[in-house]
Amino acid sequence: MADTLLKPQATAKSLGAYMIFELPLSEFHNKTQMVDISPLATDGCVRFIDCVALTTSNILRIWEFSESPLEEYSRFISWPTFKYTAISYVWRGNLASSENDSFENKFGYLTVRGAEDAEPISVNVLRAACFASLGDDDGRPYTQRMISRAEYIWLDQLCIIQTKKSDNNLQISQMYHIYKCCTQCLVLPGGLWRLTRLDEETSWANRAWTLQECLVPKYPMVLFAWTMNTGKLLGITSCWVREVEGTGGALARLKDIISGCLGKPMVFITRSIDDSSSLEYENIDIARETAFDIRVFGKDHADLYALRKVRLNFQNSSESTDPYKTRRCYSLIWQCALMRTSSRPVDMVFSIMRLMGVELNPKDFNENDRMGATIALMAMILEKSGSADWLGMPSKFPLCPQLSTFPQFARTDVSGGVNYSVLGHWRAGRSLNDWICADTSWNSEEEWKWQRLHGRMSTDGYLMFVRKAYRVSFASAEAIREAEYAHVFDWPLIGDMEGTLWKFQEDYDALAQDPAIMAIPLWEFREIHLEKGDQIEDFQFSISGIKLMIVKEQSAGKFYVVSYCFVADKEHKWRSRILDWPDYTFKVGGPEPLMRHQELADE
Questions:
Q1: What Pfam families does UniProt report for this protein, alphabetically (predicted)?
Q2: More confident: 16 or 283
Q3: Nearby residues of 128 by Cβ (< 8 Å), 6 or more positions away
Q4: What is the maximum span of the chain, computed from C-alpha positions, in angstroms?
């Protein structure tokens, strides 16, 4: 019966593709072979690796479609039987460790001309990805079969002409579509040198492009090293694991693995994937050696919580063509992006622009011009009636001196984590992150008018908008003593994230010459409190509140951000209070003048 449910897949050749590269791999035992597709490849065309040829004949075969990417992806919609798997990985991942010294690559390695700075591609890993992509599409529901059979994979190193910048730019402009149209995405957290275990930390969640690669596909899966059978990991959440036979690897859903990185160790039970019987974590007596402390993306980090929320939002969103009709976790996307890095600073913008419904031309920016690209991205978001959702990012991050509405740009490193300069010292980004996240429980502006901030962005980096606000000043020593004595810090006092106390000036001298300091409400955030063993999604352990942005006047009509405050608002007292505040016109940026991208790169 299953066979009657299957439809034959269209092949690349039947749809007009040409074979541009072929390399037999059987003779390269533990050796490295150079791959160069440039002699026959055409700029701007999409290419795929043939999984069937690699798994059955040990031949690396690459097909190319002759049309431009834009034409091809519009055609993919009418090609429901053409399926491919996109690969998400890091160019410099986890090499062999003491536990993997015995690792043997039966079919050798591949290096790509023009991408010599990347680690060699293990043919074993490439074959494992192909076997996983071919799956076991026997007509069962997706929830049981884990993956849909796709006979081709897309992997940037082998499918982009690495020696031609022109092709690279064209492919970058279509990267969103490549992952959006794929049948599924396979995440290889540790790179292409070897498969990594679930208890090994990798840099995958620190890389810029992997954010888009895991959000836009319908079905992102993780491929990891595995020595057991198919079964189920049980903990606060459950996670099906499907062995990819003969590869030393297994598959699990990305969202489940992220959840595992946010909870206590899980235990593994061998179980058929179509077994519907229930299992309770508390009622199982499992040997200690079967416990898995999942940390492949890191452990208990706020950006992973944000990533999981965004992934669920993209997965469940019915909106696909106009991203500004509903709130789509944009604030959380910005928060995730701050924890990521790239070898090219400008890719920090290109890697998220389509997630924001915006498309910039890569040719317009130098590879070091992250500042110019960031301002252009902000301006285009606002031009499309989007909101300035980058405001209110984790408040321990130092602010950018030239663009105070945005955090300082992190130091970019192709292999390391994210680092920020704080008081002359480099600090790991995750040590500065906080658990105060934008609230994503609503999806329209009708609930509260001030949930979004619209405006315009000037070319010199100033955000211009009209917003309710209230004048504040530094709290006097007497006011602080009174609050400490009463053990109450409430209106008219608020404390910012750096410990400074501010007082709302209910009566102030309008003729005063001092620079104005204003508190501007943003939108609702939640402060997440995770106790050991708590369920991650449970808002019982969160505090709802509003973030306020403190800005100081630097010259007539121009302000810069000083800090942020978070005020709990369980009974909506602050919301009601804010609705009575007067409106002001703001121009917020600076305070320092913009620097050219060359100067920023030299810092």
A1: HET
A2: 16
A3: 195, 223, 244, 247, 248, 249
A4: 85
Extract the tokens encoding 308: 């999981």
Q: Give the pLDDT of residue 102.
A: 44
- Structural contact between residues 33 and 39, judged by C-beta atoms closer than 8 angstroms: no
pLDDT over 70 at 315, yes or no: yes
CA dihedral over 226, 232, 238, 242, signed as positive or negative = positive
Selected residue with higher pLDDT from 237 and 88: 88
Name the amino acid, one letter, at 91: W
Q: What pLDDT does residue 438 have? A: 81
523 membership: H or E segment, kind and range: strand 517-528
The three-state DSSP-derived secondary structure of 162-227 is CCCHHHHHHHHHCHHHHHHCCCEEEEECCCCCCCCCCCCCCCHHHECHHHHHHHCCCCEEEEEECC
What confidence category does residue 430 fall into, taking pLDDT thresholds of 50, 70 and 90?
confident
DSSP bridge pairs for 471: 518
Identity (one letter) of the amino acid at 240? W
pLDDT tier at 1, thresholds 50, 70, 90: very low
Decide: pTM greater than 0.85: yes
CB-CB neighbours of 512 under 10 Å: 11
Q: Are strands 184-188 and 220-225 parallel, antiparallel or unpaired?
A: parallel
Are the C-beta atoms of residues 65 and 12 closer than 8 Å to each other? yes
More confident residue, 11 or 510: 11
CA distance 414 to 340: 10
Interval 87-91 mean pLDDT: 94
* 19-32 tens-digit pLDDT: 999 999 887 777 88
In order, the DSSP letters of 404-449 are TTSBPPPBP-SSS--EEEETTEEEEHHHH--SEEE--S--STTS-G
**How many angstroms separate the CA atoms of 365 and 372, rounded?**
7
- Of the ranges 65-79, 282-296, 456-470, 478-492, which is most confident? 456-470
d(CA 39, CA 105): 28
Q: What is the DSSP secondary structure assignment for residue 338, as one 8-state letter?
A: T
Whats the size of the chain, residue-wise?
A: 603
Residue by residue, DSSP assigns 543-598 as EEEEEEEEEEEEETTEEEEEEEEEEE-TTSHHHHHHHTSPEEEEEE-BSSPP--HH
The percentage of the chain sitting over the pLDDT mark of 70, rounded to a whole number, equals 78
CB within 8 A of 422, min separation 6: which ones?
398, 432
Look at the block and give the residue holding tokens 């405001």: 391
SS3 (DSSP) at 540: helix
- The token pair that represents 424 in the structure block: 């002359």
* Helix intervals (H) in 45-101: 51-57, 69-76
